[in-house]
């Protein structure tokens, strides 16, 4: 699961290593709503490149957060969904989201 060599200093340090990067939390959020196909995720997260999304999904699958399901269909279809570990991480991130809504999204502009 670890991306960095060495020892973590605390649980938050370890968690941040797993969700580090600009897009992983948003991928978790989108998959928390429902399973998505690759193209749906890319369209839902404006500005996310195909290369970065593919890399993040691969890493998140390796970390046990995301499940990739290949359907035996023509044309080929692949869906991504959260595992129970991914769901628990989303639940753990909810208080952080609440903090952001309260202290950042709703603050009056300064200046």
Describe the structure.
- The chain is α+β, with helices and mostly antiparallel strands.
- It has one domain: Orthogonal Bundle (Arc Repressor Mutant, subunit A), CATH 1.10.10.
- Helix content is about 55%, strand content about 15%.
- It is built from five helices and three strands.
- The protein has helices spanning about 10-20, 25-35, 40-45, 50-60, 85-105, and strands at about 35, 65-70, 75-80.
- The chain has a three-stranded antiparallel β-sheet with strand order 1-3-2.
- Helix 2 (about 25-35) crosses helix 5 (about 85-105).
- It is globular and about 55 Å long.
- The termini are far apart.
Secondary-structure-based class equals: alpha+beta
Number of domains: 1
Name of the level-1 CATH class: Mainly Alpha
Which stretches of 5+ consecutive residues score pLDDT under 50? Answer: none
Radius of gyration: 16 Å
Strands of the largest sheet, in order across it?
1-3-2
CATH topology: Arc Repressor Mutant, subunit A
Q: Measure the end-to-end span.
A: 43 Å
User: Count of helices?
Assistant: 5
Mean pLDDT: 89
DSSP, total strands = 3
Shape: globular
CATH architecture term = Orthogonal Bundle
As a percent range, the share of strand residues is 5-15%
Helix content: 40-55%
CATH superfamily: Winged helix-like DNA-binding domain superfamily/Winged helix DNA-binding domain
Q: Could you describe the largest sheet, including whether it forms a barrel?
A: 3 strands, antiparallel
What is the string of SSEs from the N terminus onward?
Answer: HHEHHEEH
């Amino acid at each position: 699961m670890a991306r960095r060599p060495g020892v973590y200093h605390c649980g938050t340090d370890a968690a941040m290593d797993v969700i580090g990067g600009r897009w992983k939390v948003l991928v978790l959020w989108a998959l928390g709503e429902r399973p998505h196909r690759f193209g749906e995720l890319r369209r839902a997260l404006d500005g996310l490149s195909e290369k970065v999304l593919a890399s993040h999904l691969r890493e998140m699958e390796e970390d046990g957060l995301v499940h990739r399901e290949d359907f035996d269909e023509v044309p080929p279809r692949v869906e991504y969904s959260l595992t129970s570990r991914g769901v628990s991480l989303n639940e753990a991130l909810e208080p952080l989201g609440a903090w952001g809504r309260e202290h950042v999204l709703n603050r009056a502009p300064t200046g």
